[in-house]
Amino acid sequence: MMNIIGHSEYLEQGHYGGLKIAVSPSKTGTQTLTAVLHKDDGNEEFDHPGGDPHYTTSDGSEPVRDVAEVRFKKS
After folding, report:
1. For site-directed labelling of 70, which of 19, 21, 22, 51 has its Cα 20 to 30 A away?
2. Mean pLDDT to the nearest integer, 41-69
3. Nearest CA to 8 among 42, 32, 38?
4. Rounded to whole angstroms, what are the CA distances from 67 to 34, 37, 43?
């Protein structure tokens, strides 16, 4: 199981870019992170595990996700 280090606020359906997500614990340097898309269970809050399931690929075999190298700036 992956550690959840942050999440966005509830997002309406649409296209988004430039989202900023606070992570905890704070990170430094460059890290490889995985973003996983979750379906809201109706309360417009992030409830995982136990509430908001992840979206899956068209064959249902894998979560919809993306992996990226992320560079963190010092605050």
Report:
1. 51
2. 90
3. 38
4. 4, 12, 27
Partnered with residue 34 across adjacent β-strands are 67
Task: Let me know the angle formed at the C-alpha of 67 by 65 and 68, rounded to the nearest 5 degrees.
Answer: 140
Q: What is the pTM of this model?
A: 0.75
Strand partners, 63: 56
Q: Report the alpha-carbon distance of residue 45 to residue 8 in Å, rounded.
A: 10
Buried b / exposed e along 43-53 (16+ C-beta atoms within 10 A): eeebeeeeebe
